[in-house]
Write a structure and sequence with these properties.
Elements (H helix, E strand, L loop, with lengths): L7 E2 L2 E2 L2 E2 L4 E3 L2 E3 L4 E2 L3 E2 L4 E3 L2 E5 L2 E5 L7 H9 L7 E5 L5 H4 L2 H7 L4 E5 L3 H8 L6 E4 L4 E3 L4 E6 L9 E5 L4 E5 L20 H12 L3 H11 L6 E4 L9 H11 L13 E7 L5 H14 L4 E7 L6 H9 L2 E5 L2 E2 L2 E2 L1 H8 L10 E8 L4 H12 L9 E4 L4 H18 L15
Helix pairs in contact: 8-12
Length: 426
């Protein structure tokens, strides 16, 4: 049976040794059930902070949420004196990582704070004072502790603009901030000792990192080449067993699956619709037929009434264009369409093509509302939405085919620019 880390001695919180020179001085929050409003935490979370001892001083890497400061300071004091602290590294300035910082700086006034370039204004707002020592750093910068050195890697938007990772060169240890972390609390601490946290790891990625996939891939380009014996994130288990496995999983989650399934130069166009009386469905089918006439565009048609929303988010993330069809009921687009649209905040939609269509009985506001939402999500909406009152005529069905064909051509850059009528902007 594995030996549990000794987190307390005689009721006092104790640091946990990770290597001869590195200790964990974080805190456990097992009762937390919601984090930042949007994240559920079935197992609570940890606020991980660390001490690195060099021959010429000590570095403290991150702190904890303010309400857990007493455990943080007790653990710090169990392995270091405040006058030994030369460096304070903040990989991220969110309050759950910096709650103990003002008091730490009061107790160790000689320490210099190291933060990313993007964190400078945030640090001043956090401390509410102008005079303190700090050094902004970027990728390639290092700080020496004598026989130990810390290298910095700027990893913005993972998941705030200020985030960075810190690498202990001599021990091949990455203090990764929120990257490779998760909300999972287990007193055994280490990934090869704790319970099954795979769900928490994937859930955390999906809600925290996924909206910034482009930045994840940029960060991986910096971090993948590093020799790694351990990854020490700001939340969740400490990754000492097969740390590269978690880097690889990020790579898999951040890669576009669809790219391996379509030919070079081919574009993908998805059409989603829901129909009350079959009129919007007829429009959807005509748009689908028109789009399929354009070579090198792979078109798919989905009825929202017969499907769950969640799988469509992955499809939309990998697609080049998305068209939505909705009736207008009570002056609004219908709920399944809004449900799908509200699920798209976790993915990057910038510059994807968008389009909207729908049948209506009275005023037809639904199409315009969805168009506005698509623009708010940063999609291109190159062609005004098409609205048809009640049952579409043969001519109107033909206009739907043209709508689909035009959008498909626009995906390939084949459509001629249209002269805008000022009436369209009214």
């Amino acid at each position: 049976m594995s030996k549990l880390p000794q987190l307390t001695i005689n009721g006092l919180a104790q640091a946990v040794q990770l290597s001869e020179r590195v200790h964990w001085i974080g805190a456990l929050d097992p009762s937390l059930r919601t984090f930042d409003i949007i994240l559920k935490t079935a197992n609570g979370t940890t606020y991980n902070a660390y001490v690195v001892r060099g021959s010429e001083g000590i570095a403290v890497i991150d702190t904890v949420k303010e309400g857990f400061s007493s455990d943080f300071f007790a653990r710090l004091e169990s392995v270091a004196r405040y006058d030994e602290i030369k460096v304070i590294v903040l990989n991220h300035l969110e309050p759950d990582h910096t709650g103990a910082l003002p008091e730490l700086m009061r107790r160790a006034p000689q320490a210099r704070v190291y933060i990313s370039q993007k964190a400078q204004s945030m640090l001043k707002a956090l401390l509410k004072q102008d005079e303190f020592d700090y050094t902004p750093v970027m990728t390639g910068d290092q700080v020496s502790l004598g026989d130990r050195s810390l290298a910095f890697f700027h990893t913005p938007y993972l998941h705030w603009p200020d985030t960075q990772c810190t690498y202990l060169v001599e021990e091949q240890t990455l203090f990764s901030g929120d990257v490779f972390g998760c909300h999972f609390c287990d007193v055994r601490l280490f990934n090869d000792e704790v319970g099954d946290f795979r769900f928490s790891f994937e859930y955390y990625y999906a809600h925290i990192m996924r909206p910034f996939k482009d930045y994840v891939n940029r960060a991986l380009a910096l971090l993948e080449p590093l020799p790694l014996t351990t990854i020490l994130p700001a939340h969740g288990p400490l990754l000492r067993d097969q740390p590269k496995k978690y880097v690889q999983r990020y790579r898999e989650l951040s890669s576009a699956v669809l790219q391996s399934e379509i030919s070079t130069g081919e574009k993908t166009l998805l059409i989603f619709y829901i129909s009350s009386y079959g009129n919007t469905r007829r429009m959807a089918e005509a748009i689908y037929e028109g789009a399929m006439e354009v070579e090198h565009v792979r078109v798919s048609l989905y009825d929202l009434e017969g499907s769950e929303i969640t799988p469509f988010v992955d499809l939309i993330e990998g697609a080049d264009g998305i068209i939505f069809g909705t009736p207008t009921i009570n002056g609004d687009a219908v709920k399944p369409v809004w449900d799908l649209l509200s699920s798209l905040a976790v993915i990057n939609l910038k510059s994807k093509l968008g389009g909207v269509f729908g049948s209506y009985g009275w005023t037809g506001e639904g199409v315009k509302m969805v168009e506005d939402r698509l623009r708010g999500l940063k999609l291109r909406v190159p062609i005004p939405g098409i609205r048809i009152k009640l049952i579409p005529t043969d001519e109107e069905i033909e206009s739907c085919r043209e709508f689909g064909q035009n959008l498909a051509q626009d995906l390939l850059g084949l459509r001629q620019p249209r002269v805008i009528d000022m009436a369209d902007l009214a």
